[in-house]
From TrEMBL:
Enzyme category, top tier: ligase
EC numbers on record: 6.1.1.5
Family of the protein in this entry: Belongs to the class-I aminoacyl-tRNA synthetase family.
GO cellular component entries: mitochondrion
InterPro entries documented for this protein: aa-tRNA-synth_I_CS, aa-tRNA-synth_Ia, Anticodon_Ile_BEm, Ile-tRNA-ligase, Ile-tRNA_ligase, M/V/L/I-tRNA-synth_anticd-bd, Rossmann-like_a/b/a_fold, tRNAsynth_Ia_anticodon-bd
UniProt keyword terms in alphabetical order: Aminoacyl-tRNA synthetase, ATP-binding, Ligase, Nucleotide-binding, Protein biosynthesis
Protein name: isoleucine--tRNA ligase
Amino acid sequence: MNQILRWKSGLRFYSIKYAAKEPVKYTSTINLPRTKFPTRLAQKARIELERNLIESKFASCYQYQEERHQGAAFILHDGPPYANGDLHMGHAVNKILKDITIRSHVIRDHKVHYVPGWDCHGLPIELKAMAAANAGSKSMNDPIIIRKKSRQFALDAIERQKNQFRSWGVLANWNNISKVYLTFNSNFIVKQLNLFLDLYEKGLVYRDLKPVYWSPSSKTALAEAELEYDANFVSPSLYVRFRLTNCPIAISKESCKHIFALIWTTTPWTLPSNQAICYNSNLMYALVKLESDNKQLHGKDEDRYLIAQSLLEDFQKTTNKICVVEQLIQGDELKNCTYQHPVFREQQSLPFFNAAHVQEFKGTGLVHTAPAHGLDDFIICMKNGISIRSIVNEEGIYDNGAPSYLEGKMVLDDGNELVMNHLKKDIVFVSTLTHSYPIDWRTKKPVIIRASQQWFINTAALKDKAIEEIDKIAVYPRVNAEASKKSLKAQVAKRPYWCISRQRAWGVPIPVLYEKTSGKVLLNKKLLQHICDLTIKEDNIDFWWSQPMEKVLPPSFLNEFNLEASDVVRGSDIFDIWFDSGSTWSQVLENQQAADLYLEGCDQFTGWFQSSLLLSIAARNCTPYKALFIHGFAVDENGHKMSKSLGNIISPKDISAKYGVDSLRWWVAAHGTQHMAINVSHQLVQQAAESLGKIRAILRYLNGSIEDKSLKSSNMLTTTAESYLNRFLLSQLYSFEKEVFSLYDCYEYNRVIACIQNFVTNQISANYIHLIKDRFYCGTTKEIENIRFTLKQCYTLLCKALWPIAPLLVEESWNDSKNFYENKFQAEPTWKDESVENVMEKALELKRALNQQTKSKNSWFLSLQVNCSKNALNLLERLHPLNSSSTESELCEILQVNSVNLQSFTSPTAPLDFEIDIVSRSDIELCPRCRRFAIRSNNDIKHDICQRCALCLHLAKEFKTVKMD
């Protein structure tokens, strides 16, 4: 258009165009999520946030639930970790699994009872404490110095460990010392001493000379659980002959002078302690002449050897000796045989005993029997009235009862060689054997079996009741329940006796006095009560070593036994640490009370599970636990045990610093409950961190969407008029909560994680959040309110499911003055609606079929003709009217298309539920605000936005152009 402007200077002509209008922006009119909850945190900020959350929100959580929650408490009795150093990944697995268990109850308003404890005594602490103190040889022999330094070492370790447990978010009443048990506390010691007296008076505790595992390097008896095994230990392997002095009837007396019993041993150092030969009456024995492979005779030509017939072939292969069988002898014919001792030759009539432990799998079928150095040997000799003879002292050195050439020699150093040299003429064959051999788990030095005076618990009197109780308990994981029960019962059944005494200074003394001359035990309630009173008064039991006898004895005690103080000596033994830890139930359980759960590693079948059970049966005639959960061991990515020597240690402190505490907890939950070998690697923890990152993103969206966390259920009625998408998610939420916490109750935390991830990925993210975006961002106030209600339920119940495993993430997301665990969230049973689920599942099935068929980038341009089976039509018509091309139905929203026309198949026997005909509508223009509905025309006037958006923005009925800032 030309416009003429008049100026004084004359006429000028200008050609002008109207500038194009700026496109209207509707961003400010859209209901987008808004939150200050960050997508991620820098490492430094995360560490600081974790510390603040633990100190502010978790510090009072245990006390809060203890005071507020009602009903009987769920009792998880804490197996005490050892107070001897920093924590490793095994500790993290154990303590975090316990904390997940506790939190899964707290978040459901269940009261829990969890008292953390520490095992504070034992040689590892003693050795480390004295090494750290650089104590000289004099100090090493002073029990009071040892005890003071060991106690301080344990206290320091406990403080460090407690801080690390807290840093992992473990709930407990950490600040209240009365809510933590320590095995060196005076109140614990008093309970333990009373337990000992109770068992002693019942005849379940006794003192005797018996063979036990003995560590010469530690100078103490050891329990089975204190042993490790060296798979590459090398022992001498020899066949040695014992000359018979009385032969089976079938052999003439003249020939008997040249008959030898052939035995096999890997412990020649025990031969001087031999007191019998054992045989099996069910075996057949052969009298053989020996020849070597070069036909040279062994010994004299008239020498003959007794050996089990079934072991001849093995013997010949091992020795390259040829056995010429001259006679067969039935095993029971050996019962009256006697032989000459191979070392003490003056002993001419040592016996043969029939014994079931003699087998035909290895050796010769004739077993050298030294009751001072073997359990089977001891039992058979005691049965036959043979007194026990021991010539090895506590340092593993031959004493003056041994031959002169052995006296003062170490049995495991020089003993084998010296004995073999002395018996050279009687050794038929010698070689070496590489095999598994027990070693002291502390010093890593080999142990021996040695008879000594020790205190024992009579497990034979407890086994039947213990096995009966094991049958009653529940065992988890469920997949291994029967095998685990069978294993525990087998361990209890085969346990011969329990040695509860140790020969060290750092521990609880066995409170017994002995008469000097006779060795008679002096113990009664008066003595024990006096010791307990002193223990409480002194707040420790060090006086047992430091105070004179007169102070240790109660008044008039000696008069009862008609003794003087000089006639009495106090015992020098302490309790085995398994007696300490096995009695911890007495500290946390009342009367006949049993813990709901013991949760420990699989090594505790021979340790704490068993010692706790046996002591509880002995004292209370019942089990201390209703259920056991058994987890495995942390190993590196190659399945190797972590050790400094291998350089494969991964520290939980480093893991939590790098990836976050919740990532450590997530890894434990994902991997700690289903395998006995729990692989640890940075890659696996990184995967845990990434999984949490995806969960965090969903929480961030939900957090920003709900705005008001106080929305009540009255904000939305789940009626038939309400959105199927909303009702479907609520119905799924009800099932989700029920499934998650049923898995928590079965301790299947790996499946809890899988369930959470599946629900987040499929139900929340892929289905609901994706499909309701249009209605939520651009819908009416009522629609947005109802979606917010649904999202709020989703958010709170997802947080509830996550809180036991990832509590720091949940509390950070919640970010409210009221702690998350103080709220009560529970899905309503009325939400569950199977008819809604059937409708939605069919609609989602149609959506999957559509996705496979279409390649369109923007499905809102599509119009569908869908032929359906009768069943599908009956369901889908609730989402969309039949024979209608409506664009505003919920089915259109779910399928994300412009319009749908539902019709039934013409053929009643159609093979599929759906047949989809797709038409792409290129003739429509989508609303710039919602990008779903088409812009409509009215009286040839084109409007800027769709009718729905106009109504939402409260525009006039005449659709005028909207002007926005």
